[in-house]
Amino acid sequence: xxxxxxxxxxxxxxxxxxxxxxxxxxxxxxxxxxxxxxxxxxxxxxxxxxxxxxxxxxxxxxxxxxxxxxxxxxxxxxxxxxxxxxxxxxxxxxxxxxxxxxxxxxxxxxxxxxxxxxxxxxxxxxxxxxxxxxxxxxxxxxxxxxxxxxxxxx
Length: 154
Known about the structure:
The protein is an all-beta fold and about 150 residues long.
């Protein structure tokens, strides 16, 4: 799983191999939301694990192509356990799903995903940006992929 904010640019050719029994469980989110140019956004700073900060999957963000790979029994989860202060109160969470871009290949894909299979894959996340292939599609083209998976809010 790539570091938060890291992009994968290029071609990932799986050559028909299978990634099997992989478990990605991102549970390390903290800090205030910092946007473009390193500027902290006041309303989002109250919600330190803001949805737009995190892409979770095999890759964080794909700008390129992923092809010819099989995913079997892959689980991707994005959860928060911890606490933060909001308006003078300590807010505590335990294993709480939250809004992200979450998917097996990547949180966000801008490029192509082709000739892949997804069998018995599961994605656990809050919010609406979750999917078996990717959470957020940014000019993505998905071709000749076969998908069997489940999405969970918790």
